[in-house]
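Q: Sequence in, structure out?
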Amino acid sequence: MEISVTEMNRATLFTISGRIDSSNANQLGDALNARIDAGTLNIVVDLEKVDYLSSGGLRELVGALKRVKNDDGDLRLCSLPPRIQDVLELAGLDALFQVFETQVLAVGSF
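A: Exactly. Output:
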């Protein structure tokens, strides 16, 4: 898994590629939490290049979402491949996250 972080005017963009599984989900959580600890409240996570998302990865995303929502922020997802969208729906988390088709729409929604 590779994580790229870009500071935008309205939000911080995390672009993830590769597999998010039990062996590396904590790296995603650490990256998100480091930005949240630094005061970032508006986060967009681009999952376009993610091949696999495990329950561990979902747990890290939900944990980060809860943290930013506690301080009136939000974590939004974008560019979900169909298989990742299916994972969210099967886990019942599709209603929890705001999902956008592109990075531009997601960042612009803040």
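The chain has a mean pLDDT of 96.
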